[in-house]
Amino acid sequence: xxxxxQSVFRRACGALFICAFATCAFAQAPAPAWPxxxxxxxxxxxxxxxxxxxxxxxEFGANTRMDSLVVTRWGRIVAEAYYAPFxxxxxxxxxxxxxxxxxxxxxxxxxxxxxxxxxxxxGFFKGATAANEDDRKxxxxxQQLLNMTSGISWVEPxxxxxxxxxxxxxxxANWVQFVLDRPMxxxxxxxxxxxxxxxxxxxxxxxxxxGMPSRDFAxxxxxxxxxxxxWRWRLDPQxxxxxxxxxxxxxxxxxxxxxxxxxxxxxxxxxxxxxxWADKVFQASVxxxxxxxxxxxxxxxxxxxxxxxFTVGFDRQLIVVMPETGVVAAMTGRSNYPLDNVIDHLAxxxxxxxxxxxxxxxxxxxxxxxREAATPKPMAxxxxxxxxxxxxxxxxxxxxxxPWGMKEMTLRMDGAPAMELVVYTSRTSNATMKVTLxxxxxxxxxxxxxxxxxxxxxxxxxxxxTLSAVLxxxxxxxxxxxxxxxxxxxxxxxxxxxxxxKTSFSxxxx
Length: 510
Description:
Beta-lactamase; Lipocalin; ten-stranded antiparallel sheet; about 25% strand; alpha+beta; nine-stranded mixed sheet
């Protein structure tokens, strides 16, 4: 058999397996469990899943900088890992997975008769003016905003490249007006183009159509029915919930939203999202990329050939729904990795539609990986502080103007070690504030509240003149490393962010 025929044969066998599995699953799958305040739990084998395969998935999470991972099947949690310093119960910014939640709100409003998604989008903004208005802009429908096929000119690549237009929107005084004023790049409906601005208009439209802020509409008609009570949602300068990003959820609650869609918008007997609306996700038709393999629908990325449906946020804030196997998974993190890897791990773990024999060895391996994930990894540091630590303690260093807004730095090494910073309050202001960052010098993260949120810092002397500090803001998915190299009265500072981008500047003791 030649290679091309082998490939066809493998795909055909795979398709037959999926079809056979799906038939078996629907015939033998246990009745769904509906989470109340807590999810039910089961061993992987009780749910037909492989503990050893899930242990490998948890390890994959450690290697790809996940912050959390929750895997469920048929409404029971079978694996749950939190990677230190992120902890169970914390919320996480879910970035563009927010779009799928906003898409559900549009569907609920449509089902209530409040919103016609085929109506022109501009018609909802009574009395507003839009720059660059033409027939193409007037023809944009709400559904085209939901599909990100509005045709509005927008630069927000699906990569680590700079999302120029999204940043410009964030710096503008009125986000909705900023989007309304953008020029058109093409006719609406012509082509998919990733655009968080489309979703800011959707959020405003849901507010206008429902007669209440979209965040309040979400609380009443979506989050509360699912039992999601611990959340927050960023607002734009006019108080409109950010439609394309900015929602914070616990990982278990992300899984609740996926479980809602696994059940076609129904939650424990109540149709929360209209079934026809929820099912659009599983019938997506808008091609995202040139290959056409990935399709888009109402905030969801879909890969029908693999039976996988995702909400996707930057740095892999993911909700995964795999209807053929009854698997829903949620994960948060700090790096982008191939989505196919997630599908592969979940597909390997879901071995059977009926219980498997208990696997004590596999369960022990899974438990060990979960414990390992929750244990902070100590930094490689000197066994004792070098002499220079005494020299720099208490000194205040005036720093060059830098992108991080740091004006002055003082190290406190006695008692509770800390780095005291004087920082500018904004890029355009000379006003400053003081921020104290406790330094975990014992190999553990020290937690403290800062203007960025709950912050964890681990620090240590890595050589005779260099102090390194790893800063994490777990709920924001932020990770930075500060390297302070001292030489006499001078300090050279290098800040490295989670993408590996480095900024260097220096300072001098006063």
